[in-house]
Design a protein that fits this description.
Length: 98
């Protein structure tokens, strides 16, 4: 089995902070299914769902619903299982990082 989600989250947060992102580490909300990680990077709001290898976000799930709503509002959204995934997702902003 892959890394625990909390370890993945720590690794990703450390990476995001190192490249200048403002990361909201925990969000208290009354809405189930909100993304695991919210952050702002280069002026863009981002919402990422964190999963272990092999786990997916089903479109019909609450997580899928919230990702779709954030994307419709202009956020960069995605599912990340590693720092490498985050780098690929951030490349969608049109600026290569590294």
């Amino acid at each position: 089995m892959g890394k625990l989600e909390s370890k993945i989250q720590r690794d990703i947060i450390a990476y995001l902070v190192s490249v200048g992102a403002y990361v909201v580490r925990s969000v208290i909300t009354s809405s189930n299914g909100t993304s695991d990680l919210h952050f702002c990077f280069r002026g863009r709001f981002c919402a990422f769902e964190l999963k272990r290898e092999g786990e997916i976000v089903k479109d019909e799930s609450l997580q899928g619903y919230h990702l779709r709503k954030a994307k419709k509002a202009g956020a960069l959204v995605g599912v990340a299982r590693s720092v490498a995934d985050v780098k690929l997702l951030l490349d969608k902003l049109g600026e290569h990082i590294d």
